[in-house]
Amino acid sequence: MRTFIRGPVCRGQIATDVIRDNFWALFQAPEHDLYIVDPNYRGQATPLLAMPGQNDDVGSVLSLWHDYRDKRNEYEALRRDNYADAPAPSWSTLWAGNDNALLTIFRHFDSASVNKGLIGDVPQTMWLFDFPLLERTYYQLAVNFDVFGNVSHQAQTRLYFDLIRNGAEQNFLRLMPADSRDGYLDDWYQSGGKFKMWLDYEAIDNDKPTALKLDEKDPKRDFAMQLLARYGELNARPDPINRCDGAYCSRPNIDPALQSAEQALSRLTSRPAAGLKVIDQLPEATMLRIETTSGKREVYSLLRNRAHSNVAFLLGESLRYQPGLDTLTLFPGVLSSYPNFMFNIPAEQVPAFVEAMENARDAHRFEQIVERWGIRRSHPQFWFYFHDLSQYVHETDPVEEGVLDMNRYQNL
Questions:
Q1: Which InterPro entries does this one have (predicted)?
Q2: Among the four 68, 139, 265, 266, which has the fewest Cβ within 10 Å?
Q3: Chain-centre distance of CA 37, in angstroms?
Q4: CB 181 within 8 A of CB 210
Q5: pTM exceeding the 0.85 threshold for the entire prediction
Q6: What per-residue confidence (pLDDT) applies to 232?
Q7: Measuring CA to CA, how many Å separate 234 from each of 116, 176, 237?
Q8: For residue 134, how many C-alpha atoms fall within 13 Å in the half-sphere facing its CB?
């Protein structure tokens, strides 16, 4: 997953326009994957899994796209019919081999990041990868992607990724109660997305039941809560800040000053922008550097999750954007390679910072927040604070250490 998310195929707005701003990714256990365990099914499916992009004749883009789309939809129909005869999906359907089994993906407008563990509130969509889908994702978006390819190659690659996303969503829907699947699909593909469903996607299986026992009122959230409970040991990053279900919304066993800071900061998470107006002023990825009186510091990523009526098209994002539904996710660590801004806040001032953010209903009030706590490019200690982000990654997650790109750092 990280190979293509961090690669050149996921660079630029058009490249990332067909994924949601945040979602979780799960994987199907090999022993429950018909492509692996059923040679007859594999023989029927393999000819339908060819991927576009090898023929880069510009004049043939549409005809090639239609051919590959039709093959993919024929495969989805074959998969749907064969899985209808297989045992109903249960918890054993999900792979739980190691801490890569549960992943969170964030889109930052023109880039994206993938992290181990389930971060943030329950997302609008989830993806379930089986082996054919994972293999096509890797080969289409990493191995076979030519960053110097012409417009035909680029267009075919990105158009096919739209089908990959839809396939992963359809796989996940098999885990939901049959009578809820159409409702979720309608929510994911609002407005023009319904036309795209009719035009380019294969119909889902809304008959085969699931073996999971889920709350009928909100099966997706219940699934997420049961998933977190069942696979807690695999969840590399527990998240009490964004999924606070009690009085304490901070991590245990950390500095009490940081616990108090996290408790206050949790008030900013999972609230729609219609009620938290400051979200309109924030860029994609903001870093919060919290300093305690003892000299310790913690870095948090404050990520803006933009809402869309659907993500089924490469262009026209502004027409599908739903700004009133934007939310924030806050999590310890540097979760973006492209920090857009940073605030440096003494731990004892975090409640005041949060209160100011809650009251910042216009640009003038937000300007006051930036003046007090913001680290602009003109700040006399800008380079100290910016390089400290890399130092923090070196100290807390050295495997992921690298040079952060400041080209997208804004001067709010």
A1: Fatty_acid_cis-trans_isomerase (IPR010706)
A2: 139
A3: 30
A4: no
A5: yes
A6: 83
A7: 9, 22, 9
A8: 17
Residue among 28, 24, 72 nearest 175 (CA): 28
Q: Distance (Å, rounded) from C-alpha 387 to C-alpha 370?
A: 20
Place of tokens 């003046």: 371
Which residue in the block uniquely carries the two structure tokens 């709010």?
A: 412
Which of 350, 349, 356, 411 minimizes the C-alpha distance to 382?
Answer: 411
Contact yes or no for 19/42 (Cβ under 8 A):
no
pLDDT over threshold 70, residue 366 = yes
Helix (H) or strand (E) segment spanning residue 26: strand 22-27
The amino acid that residue 192 corresponds to is G
User: For residue 291, what are its two tokens?
Assistant: 């300093």
Residue 170: both structure tokens together: 């359809």
The span from the CA of 158 to the CA of 165, in Å, is: 11
Terminal CA-CA length for the chain: 32
Is residue 168 pLDDT above 90, yes or no?
yes
Q: What is the DSSP letter of 403?
A: P
Q: 269: how many CB neighbours lie within 10 A of its CB?
A: 22
In the block, which residue shows the tokens 């998470």? 269
What are phi and psi for residue 302, nearest 5 degrees?
Answer: -110, 105
From CA 10, how far away is CA 112, in angstroms rounded?
7
Contacts of 319 (CB under 8 A, 6+ apart): 192
Cα Rg, the chain, nearest whole Å? 22
Give me the residue spans of the domains in the chain: 2-232, 240-400
The pLDDT tens digits of the residues spanning 122-136 come to: 999 999 999 999 999
